[in-house]
Specification:
It is a single chain. The protein is mostly helical. The protein has a single domain, classed as Glycosyltransferase (Alpha/alpha barrel), CATH 1.50.10.20. It contains 13 helices and no strands. The longest helix has 18 residues, at about 65-85. It is globular, with a radius of gyration of 19 Å.
């Protein structure tokens, strides 16, 4: 493969017995094949170089899927392939080629005018694309050879993305939100803030410059969003949010606070237990229409987001607690698998790529190292190491 990615085989079934009817290794292989099959080029549907997995929801910009959804969805799909790709040999050539095209697409698009930093209007999903581009590029950097010809470009892009996300943080509440009806005074969204914090923690751990004040303010804002019952409100303003509407965002919010030095593993476990207890409320909205529908305001796009981060969160608990929760998660994924072998949370065929990739994140989580904790001490950016 031209980029010389040094990828690790991560296709072994997760520790802890999966449901007897569910073959995790085969599911990961089918997921990778499905992503390769469904890679496309929105700019030129007839292109011989399909490079993206655009997320498709109800939101459009000038009638088209917005750039943030194109980049974010592609980064999520590429990361799924990166985490599960077999060694770079002839049998895996299509997977590695699809990953190469996706990497080039992400690098090109985040450098373009559509992914600039300034927040536009009252609703702007570009930060979502920037956040997952950062997540993907950081993971790619960890697996690439030191002399890879794209490494310097990736390092520069990572630092640029960090600066862009820092510049769009909400100064009043701390954190990030794609919906800002009240302008700079808008509250942050735990759904968006927690994953961005995890990416920034990883960036600091890899030696990139990250603004400590921005991270600490985001952690403050995230903590304020925890309601009395322990569930995280839809925004960082305290409310009486019920667990039924918060199980998608609460585990990852607790993980970000824990790794940021503001929480503990017991809170993560409590949130995960509520995730399984109230899972039916996520399932009621899977493949549903609309977005935040009463009674609990659950949007379909929380479904596989919730499962991906539940899988990641499980791996930060004490070892004896992981196996039973892993099994429950696999049971849920097996229950909602599509006849194609993929996963889809929306009514749009295209969004099966997103759902499948997120399900793959969840399945491979036991084989990945724990997420990086926040290190407050400033570091020097690593450009060429």
């Amino acid at each position: 493969m031209g980029t010389g990615l040094a990828l690790v085989l991560l296709l072994a079934p997760p520790q802890g017995a999966p449901p007897p009817h569910f073959d995790t290794e085969a599911a990961l292989r089918r997921g990778a094949a499905l992503l390769v099959e469904r890679q496309e080029d929105l700019s030129d549907p007839k292109s011989s170089e399909p490079a993206e997995w655009p997320y498709e929801g109800v939101y459009r910009e000038r009638g088209a899927i917005p750039p943030g959804y194109r980049v974010g969805g592609t980064a999520i799909g590429a990361l799924a392939l990166l985490l599960t790709a077999p060694p770079d040999d002839a049998d895996a050539a299509e997977v590695h080629e699809a990953l190469r095209r996706a990497l080039n697409f992400v690098l090109r698009e985040v450098d373009g005018k559509d992914l600039t930093a300034a927040f536009r209007g009252s609703y702007d999903v570009r930060g979502w694309g920037q956040a997952y581009a950062l997540e993907f590029l950081l993971r790619w950097r960890n697996s690439a050879k030191p002399d890879d010809p794209q490494r310097q470009t990736v390092d520069r892009t990572i630092q640029d993305l960090i600066v862009r996300l820092e510049s769009t943080a909400l100064a009043a509440s701390g954190g990030w939100n794609y919906a800002r009806a009240q302008g700079p005074q808008s509250p942050a969204s735990p759904f968006m803030t927690a994953p961005i914090l995890l990416a920034l923690f990883d960036a600091r751990a890899q030696g990139f410059a990250v603004d400590t004040d921005v991270v600490e303010a985001a952690l403050d804002g995230l903590a304020k969003g925890r309601a009395e019952v322990g569930a995280f409100a839809y925004t960082s303003r305290p409310s009486a949010d019920a667990w039924q509407g918060a199980i998608g965002r609460s585990p990852v919010a607790e993980l970000a606070l824990y790794l940021g030095g503001r929480g503990d593993a017991a809170r993560i476990e409590f949130a995960l237990e509520r995730f399984f207890e109230h899972w039916e409320w996520l399932e009621k909205r899977r493949r549903g229409t609309g977005t935040h529908v009463p009674p609990y305001g659950v949007a379909p796009y929380y479904f596989f987001y919730a499962h991906a981060y539940a899988g990641i969160c499980i791996e930060h608990l004490d070892e004896e607690r992981r196996a039973p929760l892993r099994r429950q998660l696999l049971e849920r994924l097996a229950e909602v698998r599509e006849p194609s072998g993929g996963w889809n949370d929306r009514v749009f065929p295209r969004s099966e790529s997103f759902g499948t990739a997120m399900a793959m994140w969840a399945m491979v989580a036991p084989d990945l190292p724990p997420r990086a904790a926040w290190v407050k001490a400033p570091t020097i950016p690593t450009r060429d190491s």
